[in-house]
Every structure is written in structure tokens, then in C-alpha cells.
Amino acid sequence: MSIASDLLANLLAKEDFFSGLSQQRRLYEAAKTAIHQQHLGAGTKLPSSRDLARDLCLARNTVVAAFEQLSNEGYVSSSLGSGTYVADLAEMKPIADQNNHLDALALTSATAQVAALSRRGAHITAFAAGPRFEIQPFVPGDADFSNFPFKLWQRLQNRVWREARSELLDYADAGGFLPLRLAIAEYLRVSRSVKVAVENIVITSGTHQSLDLCAQLLADVGDTAWVEDPCYWAARRVFEACDLRLHPIKVDAEGIALGPEDLATDPRLIYVTPSHQYPTGAVMSLARRRELLDVAVRKNAWILEDDYDSEFRYTGRPLASLQGLDSADRVVYMGTFSKILYPGIKIGYMVVPSALADPFKIALYDLQRPGQLMVQAALADFISQGHFSTHIRKIRQIYGARRELLRKTLVAQFGTQLNQRVSISSEESGLHLVVELPDQVDDVALEKLAAESGISVKALSTYYLKAPVRRGLLVGYAYVTPDKIVYYGKLLAAVILSGVR
Ligand SMILES: Cc1ncc(COP(=O)(O)O)c(C=O)c1O
Hints:
It comes from Undibacterium parvum. With about 500 residues, the chain is α/β, with parallel strands linked by helices. The protein contains 18 helices and 14 strands.
């Protein structure tokens, strides 16, 4: 989906955006808003009416009629064969219809606020994920930080401070604190079958920064990035902010499912979550892993493997990484301590192919000036002294039991009739499960309804870049204690029942 389609889709998805008016009028108003607020700047080429109709799931006539109206009023200009372009508002005559709600809006403070931003800045801020999810029952992705071993951590930190090594107060160069990189290398070799030497490890401030560095160092403006559809919102945001062209690829029970139309494009980056697709939970099959590695070699593309929660596998052994199968050095592997320890620790890592190791370390140092060596030192001790593995074992048990309890609670509440119409994701890993709903159910409305009962679930359809979307709810269980799982599980089941009946 192009940036313009994405922008318009986001505006149209807002429930109160000219609700009650025709599709044509809503699209016209959305485009006008985007032009006034300079999210669609002068000279921007709009997608063809055919592409826009497909991306927004509208009839082509509707799009053509909305374009015509915009053209009549001078917001866009079209010439046969070359496409439709946004006009320069500065050159426009005063707008006739000053009573129009949106024109007024555009001329007020909103415009003044965004006018100072670059076009990219305006785009990023307009479509940011918004205020952080309230931490309340079933918020997807959040762990239960009350299990964090505070005392032990304090002891390790104290020891580092007592040693008073002044060099640890400096910026972190050479990819991060060596003992931490050694400890991570050992952990990845044993637990994730990653092929790694310590030189290949670059410590970052988390997966977001890892993705940003990859986008900046491995792709140029306008290059194509293949992403899973549905996709982790932050990967999408980072790539968009780097002006990459996103090509969404559908996901099925075996993970990313390449079709002929995908293979006809040439990606520079391929972003995947093979161990536990975010958000559907699908585990990429071995055949698909091999296929993807082959394609990456043929297309000369880089695979970015986001292994964000593979530690949370509740039955059987954790799956080996995709990187471990790569014999052509096409995979950049990414991990994070956000989920196992706590998000605010802001430490993640990449395992990059040898040819990329020095350029990545140089760029990280020049662009970001990383630091936090004291925390990195405490973390190195935490891992090498065996506390990390112990902690993983402990929380894995806790979250596994919570997952089972949530599933049982929902199944019992749904009853036979509903259990035939909805399905609960069955893979035994991660920090959330997906309750899949029938296609006609409005999952966004259910998300809002659940919020009224103090429950933070997330609509599956909002993670998609293009139609057709699947409907469902992401329900996180790690953060919620067992008594609350039963109480809020019943409330959530009632919300779902009200939408599916
Ligand atoms: C798919 C995915 N990747 C990575 C992360 C972690 O990102 P970070 O290390 O920047 O906290 C998350 C966190 O929610 C995630 O859901």
C-alpha cells in the first residue's frame, strides 16, 4: 500500500470522521484534510483510482467521483496518462466554502502546529500509535514486571558501581560492552541455534533501533521492504519513516506466504517474525524458511529476523532461528531484553553478517552515541552467572499457566455455540493469544466495548496493511494475575458474545 493510501485509510478508519456521509464524500474530505495539513504535500502523486479503490476497499466509481470533485476545486490536477498530483495550496484562490468544517480546521492551529514539521515528520506524528496503551488486564505484549528479581539486580548493579571503573561512564563503542556481547553470543548459540561470533553482535537500545539502523544502512529511500500482513506496527512505522515502500505479504498458518505477485517485486529488506508471527502467532514452517532464504539470495535482499519472544515457548523445545539455517549471510537476527526483563531497560541486540559488523558499529556510534555501559555490565553478570536462564524458566512457567487459564475461562464462557464460530489460537508460545472472530464482526467496536469494562485488547484487523483483513482480538495474559484472568476473562467473553451473536 502506498503512503497516500495508508494515510487516507487511517483517516477513514476514524469512527467520527464525517460519519453518516457517503463514501465518496468521506474520501473527498479525507484527501482534503491530508492536503490542508500538508501530509500530502504539493506535487505528491496520488495512487491511481484503481489502486486506491483496491487499497481502501471502495468502488472505483467512488474514487473517480471524489477525485473529480477535488480536481474541480483545485486541490489536485490530473493529466491524461500521467496521473493525479496534489496542487500547491499557496497558489490557490481563497476557498469559497469557508463554512466548511474541515477548511476551518485546516486554517486553525492544527495547520500551524504541523506546518513547522517536515512532510516526513508530519506523517510520523499523524500516524503514531498514539498514547501508550493503558496497562490494564489483557494488554497485549506486556509482561508482569512484578516478577523482576529486584534485589538480585540491585546487588549486581551495586557491585558494578563499587568497582568504579571510570571507562564504563563513557559512550559505548565497538558494538557494546564486550562481556555482554560474549554472554549473548553464548546464549544464542545454545538456545537459539544462531551462528554467531562475538564480533557479529551489536548492542542496540532495542528492536526499534535495530530496525532503524537496518533501514538506514541497508536500504535507500524508495526501496521496497516486504513485510508480513498483518505486521508489527513499529516495524511498519520505522520503515515508513525511512521512506521505504512497503509491500505487504499475506500470512497463513505456516507464516509468510509468498505469491507470484510478491515475487514480481524486488525487495531490499524482508521483515519477518518466524518464531511467533506478530500478531497472528503462526510459526514459520521449515519449507517456508528455506524458500525465504532462497528468495533472499536470488533477490539480493536482507532478511530481518525479529525474534522478540521466542523464549516464551510453553511446550517442547524452542524452535531454532531462521538465521541458523542461513548459509549465505543474508539474515540479520534481532533480539530484545524488553520482554524477559523489562521494556525500560532499553537493551536489544543484532547479530549481523560479518561483512556488516564494522559498518554497523561505526554507524551506531556516529548516529546514536550509545551508552549505558553500567547497565550492560550488570546485565552481562546477570546472564553469565545463570540468573537469566533461571528467570526465563520461572516466568515461562507462570505465563504458561496463565495462558492455559485464560483459554479455559474463555472456552467455558463461550459455550458450544460460540466455540463453533470463534477460534482461539492454539500455538503454545508468546505473551498473547488471538481470539479469531467471524468476518462480519466489527473487532474495532469490540475493542472499544472491552475498554469500557477496563480491558485492553487490540483488534486484529488494525494490524493489516491491506484487505482482506481477518477479524479478531489480541488478548495478552502475561500481565494479569490468575484471579483477574478469571474475573476479566468472563467480562471479555460477554463482550465477545455481544458482538458475535
Ligand atoms: C514484534 C515485536 N518486536 C520487537 C518488540 C520489542 O521492541 P523493543 O526491543 O524496541 O522494545 C516488540 C515489543 O512489543 C514486538 O512486539
